[in-house]
Amino acid sequence: MVQEKSGDELGLFDKYEETFIKIRDKITGYDIKNVIDFGCGTGNLCGLLSEKINVLGIDKSVEMIQEGKRKYPKMNFIECSILDVSSIKEKADIVVSSYVLHGLNEEEKRKALSNMLLLNDQKRVILIDFMFENMKSKEEYKENLLRNNRPDLWKFIESKNFFIVEELRKYVEENNLKITLEHVVNFTWIAEIYK
What we know:
GO terms for molecular function: methyltransferase activity. The protein is α/β, with parallel strands linked by helices. It has helices spanning 16-29, 62-71, 106-118, 135-147, 151-159, 165-174; strands spanning 34-38, 54-59, 76-79, 94-98, 125-132, 163-164, 178-185, 188-194. Strands 1, 2, 3, 4, 5, 6, 7 and 8 form an 8-stranded mixed sheet that branches. The model has no long low-confidence stretch (mean pLDDT 92).
């Protein structure tokens, strides 16, 4: 779906590659040495960076890691759940995650975000994921899909756990951190969390 855009009626992966280029540029602009990619899959986001800096990819899928190692031999991988990073001793200057956390429930999302901050001495996290700006915009989107006789698309959205920007901002601020948000396209947002 990501590469061929087939079956992506919601435009979930519009501007996918452009967004990744923007994030890679942002990472290299910080002049850092170590990156951890949470839920890295096959390394699409940070694999190219492994030519210049130390990149550790964390994913629970052995198949994804095997493909990632084939594509990016200089990238390091650990088979691990993003919800339990107790075995990971490495720290990073920045932790990133792309299109992963929307698959978790609210408690798991908070745990994953907490783990991202735990593995990061600088407390800098970049998150690319699916989000609604607020509950009102989510409800309006639902009504629009149902009015257009597309309950199937709404059912798909409901099966995921898209972030609500307002709630993410509140969570971050409650943890005495700052956040900048950028709406990319459709449901895709970039959130940068920092001290």
